[in-house]
């Protein structure tokens, strides 16, 4: 029965011309399949994109929770540490004869200063005490009747554990603070610790341009928002209808936003911070994705219809030619039939040519992949050489610095050693951070030079004098250069340029701009370099050796600059015997978009 119906269908199709048959087949074969596949793609892409936005929103909430946990945990640990501080307990329970005696005792207690210097998350630290002999000085303040009547003070006296509250400042902006009573056994005095979280610290760590964030402690008004004018007010995100614990689309002033609500219980099991994070771009992007895919499906339908129409006309024309060829063959006109055959031979030739093109393309792809592999190997080899050369400076400088610190430890007091170690730590931090990076700001490079010069002045005293000048048209924060370029030049001027002189040495650094290039000049008033040694030095820096022990910095800098910027950049050395030496380095400003490193 099915076979008969199929034959009947094809018999009916044969009643139409071939062009009409193609258009009849277009509807079920092309149109319906394209629409079905398009709808499936739209649905699947929208579902995947929605899932991605939900996942990103949840990750952002987890990030915020992690930051808040670290911050509150830092406050809790600080409060716990101060609660167990015996020196602080003695200070709070002492009976001072006058304010001066109390101030001297307070100044000798440096634990609070250390906490303020190390904990950047703390905006204010205050200890309120009922000890009348302690004046309002530094971190200590008298707990008068007004303060003792406050809710937070009364709660601190009743609750031994630390707790969080949000308190309005003079400018009506809520600030998150931690309160904890400091135990004073065997004393009638009381003391309450207040630690206020720095709003800017939270803003720097929590701000994300893709999300709007509001934080709320318990049922209080919000204490943090990306829009600072909303702090201390009921949150806009909290007013949305029934936010879920997971990401969901909710309406905000007629527009849909993806809102994520998450909670962070505090260690005292009483306070809870609620996190509201909204992605205002998610719904708009999903709608744009829907429009984009719908447009693609529509374009495909129109394109396929045009293609079917053109192909139908082309195919019917070939059929007509075939009919003519058969007609002329029937009347034994083989020349025309041979022309048709010739067209068939051209089709075969095009097929063979297509096979040849495919083989050529395959060979070219293999050659291209081989060249890419060779170029990648060359790049890795150059990067290894770059890292080796960049690493030669640090041990040499570190050895001299440590030797300076060792000698100072034998001949001077501990305060100088501490200062020297501090400078060394700054220098090592810059070196470690610069290692592996391709560029740094001019300002950071100059800071490293200042640290190095301070270390050398500790070693040589007034024998080393340094000054520098930077052209006004150079923005030190915006200008980008390779790391570890300027310090080796200054180091070479101090270590070699001023070597052996008996009069005060002077090193001057000058940075000017020449078009898109930077010209860095380091001058010293040393004894200079003899012509034969100068020529030898100029040749030496052109071919740096990983086994060299002298002039490592100059050779290193010159080689790195030429590898990165190109052969037209690099070092030049000029010296006049008895007058000093000048080293000039020309590089390109990496902040210029038009420049492409080699």
UniProtKB/TrEMBL annotation:
Reading the lineage from the top rank, the first entry is: Bacteria
Q: Which Pfam families match?
A: HATPase_c (PF02518), His_kinase (PF06580)
Tell me one GO molecular function of this protein.
kinase activity
Membrane-spanning intervals of the chain: 21-43, 290-312
| Keyword field | Kinase, Membrane, Transferase, Transmembrane, Transmembrane helix, Two-component regulatory system
- Can the keyword Transferase be found in this entry's annotation? yes
Limits of the Histidine kinase domain:
482-591
Q: Does the keyword Membrane apply?
A: yes
The UniProt entry, under PANTHER family, shows: SENSOR HISTIDINE KINASE YPDA
Q: What is this protein called?
A: Histidine kinase
Q: What is the lineage of its organism?
A: Bacteria, Bacillati, Bacillota, Bacilli, Lactobacillales
């Amino acid at each position: 029965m099915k076979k008969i119906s199929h034959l009947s269908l094809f018999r009916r199709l044969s009643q139409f011309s071939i062009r009409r048959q193609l258009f009849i087949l277009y509807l079920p074969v092309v149109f319906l399949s394209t629409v079905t596949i398009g709808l499936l793609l739209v649905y699947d892409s929208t579902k995947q994109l929605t899932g991605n936005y939900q996942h990103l929103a949840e990750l952002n909430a987890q990030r915020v929770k992690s930051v808040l946990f670290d911050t509150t945990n830092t406050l809790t640990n600080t409060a716990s540490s101060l609660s167990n501080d015996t020196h602080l307990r003695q200070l709070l329970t002492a009976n001072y004869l006058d304010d001066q005696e109390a101030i001297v005792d307070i100044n000798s207690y440096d634990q609070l200063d250390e906490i303020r210097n190390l904990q950047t998350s703390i905006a204010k630290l205050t200890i309120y005490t009922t000890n009348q002999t302690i004046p309002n000085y530094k971190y200590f303040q008298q707990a008068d009747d007004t303060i003792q009547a406050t809710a937070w003070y009364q709660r601190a006296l009743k609750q031994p554990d630390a707790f969080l509250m949000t308190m309005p400042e003079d400018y009506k902006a809520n600030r998150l603070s931690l309160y904890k009573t400091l135990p004073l056994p065997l004393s009638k005095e009381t003391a309450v610790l207040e630690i206020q979280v720095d709003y800017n610290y939270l803003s720097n760590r929590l701000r994300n341009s893709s999300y709007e964030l509001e934080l709320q402690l318990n049922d209080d008004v919000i204490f943090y928002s990306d829009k600072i004018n909303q702090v201390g007010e009921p949150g806009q995100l909290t007013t949305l209808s029934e936010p879920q614990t997971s990401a969901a689309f909710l309406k905000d002033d007629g527009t849909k936003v993806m809102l994520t609500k998450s909670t962070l219980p505090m260690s005292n099991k009483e306070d809870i911070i609620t996190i509201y994070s909204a992605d205002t771009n998610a719904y708009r992007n999903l709608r744009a994705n829907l429009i984009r895919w719908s447009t693609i499906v529509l374009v495909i339908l129109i394109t396929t219809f045009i293609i079917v129409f053109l192909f139908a006309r082309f195919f019917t024309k070939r059929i007509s030619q075939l009919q003519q060829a058969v007609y002329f063959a029937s009347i034994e006109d083989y020349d025309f039939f041979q022309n048709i055959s010739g067209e068939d031979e051209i089709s075969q030739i095009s097929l063979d040519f297509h096979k040849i093109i495919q083989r050529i393309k395959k060979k070219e792809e293999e050659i291209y992949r081989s060249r890419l592999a060779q170029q990648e190997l060359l790049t890795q080899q150059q990067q290894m050489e770059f890292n080796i050369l960049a690493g030669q400076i640090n041990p040499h400088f570190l050895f001299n610095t440590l030797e300076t610190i060792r000698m100072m430890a034998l001949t001077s007091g501990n305060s100088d050693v501490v200062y020297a170690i501090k400078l060394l730590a700054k220098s090592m931090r810059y070196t470690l951070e610069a290692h592996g990076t391709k560029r740094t700001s001019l300002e950071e490079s100059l800071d490293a030079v200042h640290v190095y010069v301070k270390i050398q002045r500790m070693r040589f005293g007034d024998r080393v004098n340094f000054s520098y000048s930077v052209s006004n048209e150079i923005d030190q924060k915006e200008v980008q250069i390779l790391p570890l370029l300027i310090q080796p030049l200054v180091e070479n001027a101090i270590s070699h340029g001023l070597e052996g002189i008996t009069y005060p040495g002077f090193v001057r650094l000058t940075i000017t701009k020449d078009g898109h290039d930077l010209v860095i000049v380091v001058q010293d008033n040393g004894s200079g370099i003899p012509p034969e040694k100068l020529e030898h030095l100029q040749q030496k820096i052109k071919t740096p050796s990983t086994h060299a022990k002298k002039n490592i910095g100059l050779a290193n800098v010159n080689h790195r600059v030429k590898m990165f910027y190109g052969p037209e950049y690099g070092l030049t050395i000029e010296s006049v015997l008895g007058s000093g030496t000048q080293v000039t380095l020309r590089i390109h400003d990496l902040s210029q978009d038009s420049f492409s490193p080699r």
